[in-house]
Amino acid sequence: MATVVFFHAHPDDEALSTAGTMAALSVAEHRVILVVATRGEEGEPVPGVLREGELLEERRTEELIKSANLLGVERVEFLNYRDSGMADSPTTSNPECFWQADPEEATKRLGDILKDEKVDFLVIYDPNGGYGHPDHIQVHRVGTLWSEQVGIENVRWTTLNRDAIKKTIELAMRETPDEGLAGVGEDLEERKKRVEEGSFGSAEIEITHAIDVSDFIDKKRESISAHRSQIDENSFFLKIPDEQFLTLFGTEWFINPKETRKENEPFKANLFN
Q1: Among 133, 154, 174, 218, which residue's CB has the most CB atoms within a 10 Å radius?
Q2: How many percent of the chain have pLDDT more than 70?
Q3: Number of other CB atoms surrounding residue 55 within 10 Å
Q4: Which domain holds residue 117?
Q5: Is residue 73 domain-resident?
Q6: Count of C-beta atoms within a 10 Å radius of residue 268
Q7: How many domains does the chain divide into?
Q8: In whole numbers, what is the pLDDT of the chain averaged over residues?
């Protein structure tokens, strides 16, 4: 059995981008390890969700543990950097944030956590971090540096299929009754805009792996729902009808940076290939 490390930036990133793959690997009795760079201090909490005196990072840590347990993750660790916030936020200047971390020092933290593990595969973000978030980009940099230092041959970049997302959003906006889009229509418009700008995900031709996680779609939705401090019950992720949720999130996309997929060549369906 393989040991697969998923290196993410914040609590809830694991749910949104790789939950199905993590659950599938766990069911197949692979060892799944989740390392998270920050505790998500700069997230915007859903109004009224925090208990009196509760810190957001405490709640998000609890939510991550719940999500990880749902997905069968065997080990959860944090690098314990501070959340950097979005690219245009002044919080990216905080000397304690992940974006400001020295890559060598951050790589050492990651290496210290994993020094006793025989890692077969490492999953990190694509070079733009999926959508340009500073912490996601830093995960890519640090994960790449660590894999080179210790000789991890099998690295996969989790990404989003920009072309598929655009088609699915257009279909949802065209075919879903207005009452089905209540509360999520603005989300769809914004996502469509970002996809069209090219700042979201990767072009389909750049993607090498398409992992069918439809058998684990309920687990994925449960994992997303576990992060209630960030994801309101009326959010796009939880309000969208089941059929369209499956269409949008039933496949998880990865890139093997050592491979190039030719046009019309089928995607690989197994992360290990």
Answers
A1: 133
A2: 88
A3: 12
A4: 3-159
A5: yes
A6: 17
A7: 1
A8: 91
- Whichever domain contains 144, its CATH number is 3.40.50.10320
Residue 217 domain flag = no
pLDDT at 184 over 90: no
Look up the pTM and report it.
0.91
> Which of the pair, 156 or 238, is modelled with greater confidence?
156
Task: Report the share of the chain in percent with pLDDT over 90.
Answer: 78
The dihedral built from the CA positions of residue 164, 170, 173 and 176, taken in this order, carries a sign that is: negative
Kindly state whether residue 230 falls inside one of the protein's structural domains: no
In one-letter notation, the amino acid at residue 45 is: P
CB 34 within 8 A of CB 19: no
User: Quick check: helix, strand or coil at residue 224?
Assistant: helix
Tell me if 244 is assigned to some domain: no
Which of these, 135, 126, 215, 113, lies nearest to 162 by C-alpha position? 126
Q: 14-56: per-residue pLDDT in tens?
A: 999 999 999 999 999 999 999 999 999 999 999 999 999 999 9
**Residues 39, 89: contact at Cβ < 8 Å?**
no
Structure tokens given for 191? 């996502």
Structure tokens that stand for 199 in this block: 């700042």
CA distance 83 to 177: 38
**How far apart, in Å, are the Cα atoms of 177 and each of 184, 185, 241, 247?**
12, 11, 11, 17
